[in-house]
Amino acid sequence: MTSAIALEHVTRTFRNGAGVFDLDLSVHPGEVVALVGLNGAGKSTLMRVMLGMLRPHAGDARLAGSLLNKAPSGEWRRVGHLVDYPLAYPELTAQRNLELSARLRGVVDVDDAIARILSEFALEEYAGRKVRALSLGNRQRVGLAAALQHSPRVIVLDEPTNALDPAGVIRLRESLLRRAAAGTAVLVSSHHLDEVARIAHRIVVMNAGRLIGSLDPSIPDIEHAFFETVRLDDEKGAR
Ligand SMILES: Nc1ncnc2c1ncn2[C@@H]1O[C@H](COP(=O)(O)OP(=O)(O)OP(=O)(O)O)[C@@H](O)[C@H]1O
């Protein structure tokens, strides 16, 4: 099966020597892959390379089998992502922001898509408010709504539960599980190990810019397994 999105031997470093090194990672349609790692491990950098926001120094990034710079625009329209900050114009209302982002993605029935996503993320009462006047969590909900309203076939979310309240976390979990069950490929990073264990088919561990192994989401003490994996890798590096 062609990967929905993939990195092959990707390296991208920064001037200070940090970055990501020789990464291989594929996410297939219908699969939820969680990316976990300590602060600075390289999760956001990996996602930025995967989305074409950073050009790799070595290796290839692919979308639906095509190199990113050759992927048809129709494939890009089927990508939904939230990396870094929610992409919203603060002076416009939540509704207007969703409308603009839906049009950019070629959504046909914009009103219908917005009504659905507002309900999915319980944003109806905030639709008419300017984004700058929303709470952090509600701004995050608007960012997620903008990333998901066009029913993407590939979803990449960097720490999407940041600032969400428990109800928001549950809504997002249900949304991602439903989308994956319908064939969408999902890559999500998080520091909440128990939460990702609930939704991920695979949990991939990053440390110091490398992928160092995977964790079985069904194991009982996922936090212990995570720290043990990182500790063993650090010990190897120190030898
Ligand atoms: N633009 C940049 N210039 C220099 N170094 C950078 C840049 N972006 C990231 N880095 C470095 O690359 C490494 C990986 O950062 P990255 O943000 O990908 O980690 P992360 O796993 O997403 O961390 P966190 O969990 O804190 O969000 C870090 O050491 C970071 O300081």
TrEMBL record:
Keywords: ATP-binding, Nucleotide-binding, Transport. SMART domains: AAA (SM00382). SUPFAM superfamilies: P-loop containing nucleoside triphosphate hydrolases. Residues 5-233 form the ABC transporter domain. The keyword Transmembrane does not apply. It comes from the Bacteria. One of its GO terms (molecular function) is ATP binding. PANTHER family: ABC TRANSPORTER, ATP-BINDING PROTEIN. Belongs to the ABC transporter superfamily. This is ABC transporter ATP-binding protein. It comes from Herbiconiux aconitum.
